[in-house]
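Reading group handout, session on sequence-to-structure problems. Before we discuss, look at one worked example. The prompt was deliberately terse, the way you'd type it at a terminal:

> structure DUF58 domain-containing protein

The input record follows.
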Amino acid sequence: MSKLLDPKVMMAIKDLNLSAKTTIDGFMSGINKSTIKGPGLEFSQYRSYQPGDDLRSLDWKMFARSDRYYIRESEVETNIAVRFLVDASASMNHHDGEFTKIDYARYLTACLAYLANLQGDAIGLYIFKNTELFSMVAKQDYQHLARLFFQLEQLKPEGEFTKPIHYKEIFSGTQNRELLVFVTDLYQTAEEIFDLLDTLNALGHEILVFHVLSRNEIELDFKGYSTFEDLETGQTLQIDQTKARSTYQTKLRNYLDKTRNHMLDRRIYYRTITTDEPLDQALRDFLKQRNKLKV
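And the output record:
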């Protein structure tokens, strides 16, 4: 496994564009290239050669038969739109060591968007924070990818998760199936995130949920801290970590099992991912689901 897939190494590269490119290059060099499916081409027609045409498209067999230059034109297979949904509510400011959940979500989304763009897919971005929804329509060009990187770089989590709004109207603007990639810590107060997922699922799109967790919240190991603050409500709680750890971890396991079953019942792909976890498996999971949607 490439060290470039280590989140510490990845986040040391401050430029999001460079980090995503470096990470994806490292990932692709370590796997079977045949599993990376770009835009497929099917033969459509011939046309006469015109100055400026790519000589690699010349059909030499046609030249041998007719003594004339013809360009072999192809039709690009229709690719999918990949919409990235990022939870930027205040709970994503939770940190473990050197970086926060939103740091990991930012770089994970950037890498997946770079990979989707590399494969010829249109990409869009939706940011949920402080009861608002920021949206970027899905497009397929490098300038649009650069704009997506810029928006990710500006992310500053605050407030609660977006309250239900006109999700159906926003996400049903196309008749084509889409791949929706949701990066979130699933912190919710009244099932609002599950309500969002139920709405999106009813529209028939393929959904991937990357549930971002930190190692210290999984293990309840906060280096001696005994007072905890809810990042979204400001409420504080006194906890004896040593006494509470066993009960806490049991409840956490039950919660994660319940969440996983909730997703499976709705045929939503669900994966927990910790902020110290290398990205290679998350990238593989994304490729698997993305190629499944193309079939």
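Points for discussion. First: The chain has two domains: 3-33+79-294, 41-76. Second: The chain is about 40% helix and 25% strand.
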